[in-house]
């Protein structure tokens, strides 16, 4: 029997499949799929291609226009993302993975919306960028901390959560350091978008698995690939700094 909160996951996946079919048919009928400057700037990777990222931005475009008509500000959306991330972390900590998935998904959508809304309203500034980046770090930590609390009695699982937290912050640090030193940002896998998507998939699968095994597997993927990617980024940044 499917747990009640697992219906959140099924509803989201049915919606995404429906939107994916519409997106695919519109792309074929229109002679191509829509591309976004935001996605081109961030770039895809072997773990998350640009096609999926363009599809995600296309899905939330109507929401951006709705927020614009309602006079919602980007900073308000950013703080909503923080609140949803906190609620998702609490849900994960208590083993409610379906609710955690749904709330984390809404938090991630809010994070996409605030930047798009700022560009639409022509209100993007450095203060908003700093706020958005800071909130992102808090949400990243809270979600993985929620996982750590759930797995707190399992040593290897807890270790994976801690390593995943370390990897995520070191990748963010290399990006910030490169930008501060006006050097090219090192490329690699396990950027925030990729980590977020994989964590969502782990939560979604764990809604049907009470012990959270799919989530644990995803966490170890984040831990290993995240820290390897961070090390490779540091090496590239170090060599670039020495060459400059």
Could you state the order of secondary-structure elements as H and E? Answer: HHHHHHHHH
The CATH architecture comes to Up-down Bundle
At the fourth level of CATH, the homologous superfamily is CDP-alcohol phosphotransferase transmembrane (TM) domain
Briefly note the structural class of the backbone: mainly alpha
What is the quaternary state of this protein?
single chain
Low-confidence stretches: none
Return the CATH class: Mainly Alpha
Distance between the termini: 61 Å
Strand content: under 5%
Number of domains: 1
Bulk shape: globular
Can you offer a commentary on this structure?
- By secondary structure, this protein is mainly α.
- The protein has one domain: Four Helix Bundle (Hemerythrin (Met), subunit A).
- The chain contains nine helices and no strands.
- It is globular and about 50 Å long.
- The N and C termini lie far apart (61 Å).
- The mean pLDDT is 87.
Short description:
By secondary structure, the protein is mainly α. The chain has helices at 6-29, 37-42, 50-69, 74-93, 97-121, 126-150, 155-180, 192-206, 213-243.
Fold topology:
Layout: H1 6-29, H2 37-42, H3 50-69, H4 74-93, H5 97-121, H6 126-150, H7 155-180, H8 192-206, H9 213-243
């Amino acid at each position: 029997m499917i747990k009640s909160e697992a219906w959140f996951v099924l509803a989201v996946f049915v919606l995404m499949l429906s939107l994916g079919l519409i997106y695919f048919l519109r792309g074929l009928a229109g002679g191509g799929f829509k591309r976004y400057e935001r996605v081109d700037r961030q770039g895809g990777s072997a773990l998350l291609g640009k096609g999926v990222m363009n599809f995600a931005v296309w899905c939330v475009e109507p929401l951006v226009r709705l927020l614009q008509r309602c006079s919602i500000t980007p900073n308000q959306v950013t703080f909503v993302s923080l609140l949803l991330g906190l609620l998702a972390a609490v849900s994960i900590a208590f083993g409610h993975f379906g609710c955690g998935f749904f709330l984390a998904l809404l938090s991630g959508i809010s994070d996409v919306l605030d930047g798009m809304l700022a560009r639409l309203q022509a209100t993007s500034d450095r203060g908003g960028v700093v706020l958005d980046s800071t909130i992102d770090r808090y949400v990243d930590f809270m979600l993985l901390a929620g996982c750590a609390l759930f797995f707190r009695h399992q040593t290897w699982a807890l270790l994976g959560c801690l390593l995943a937290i370390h990897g995520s912050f070191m990748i963010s640090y290399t990006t910030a350091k490169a930008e501060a030193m006006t050097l090219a940002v090192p490329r690699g896998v396990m950027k925030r978008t990729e980590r977020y998507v994989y964590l969502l998939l782990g939560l979604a699968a764990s809604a049907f698995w009470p012990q959270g095994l799919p989530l644990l597997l995803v966490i170890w993927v984040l831990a290993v690939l995240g820290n390897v990617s961070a090390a490779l980024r540091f090496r590239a940044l170090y060599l670039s700094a020495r060459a400059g």
